[in-house]
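### Sample
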Amino acid sequence: MSTFILLTVTGLGLAALYFLVASGLSLIYGLMDVLNFAHGAFLTLGAYTAWVVVDATGSLLLGVAVAIAVGAVLAVLMETALLRRMYGSHVPQVLLTVGLLLAITALIRSIFGTDALQLATPEWMNEVTEILGAPIPNNRFVLIVTAVLVYLAMSAFLAKTRYGLIIRAGVENRAMVTALGIDVRRAFTLVFAIGGALAALAGALAGVINNAVSPEQGMSLLIFAFIVVIIGGLGSFRGSALAAVLVGLLQQYANFYGAVGAGDLIVVLMLAAILLVRPQGLLGRAAS
């Protein structure tokens, strides 16, 4: 029983990490029809920004806060300076964002090296808390609580603010919103800022649970984030949350109770099944 509880909580921690990455990706695609592969670069930049600040000040909280700010600012710069000129042109968008991902990852390797760098974290995060006999690492609770707070804050923002309503309406029917005379360009920039901030937050927290940051962590997390987005439904914030929980738990259970690497296989098979049975995803809308 204690093993199952440990797998469940750690799986929810992994799901929280996937959700933080996938939610921004989903909103960006749903509103702007952009597959933003550079999202992985924001993950890595967030991790290394946190490392630099923690190394200089010793404050993890400050490191995470600065990482969020850097991710948001860089996302806005990318959207306004580069992507804004390419809306509606899918191939140039993909080439640009993939190129940015590769270039930024290579730049980080050249500055910090290819080896992982240890991220100093508060001692209590590396300790465990027992739940029904299961020793749960405290850093998993940090991930889960952070993801829940982000989900609640984003849900309130999308439901109760003017820009949130514009974003929701734009995801449902961008042409209608534009026809009503609403300038959705500001909403585009805001969504990119939110996506960059959440990606940077996820990158910093990934460094926290691994006690290290590495140049490749953005790419590896990005793959599963896209899987979560597709399973949940492109443009569906709640769908991303649901899919993240399913993927995180399935990975943990399959990797422990099955063969090594079975978790990744199960997730890919689930993705294939969703695409065959419900191509729009669990909570996505079918194309009209």
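The mean pLDDT is 87. This sample (Inner-membrane translocator) is used throughout the tutorial notebook.
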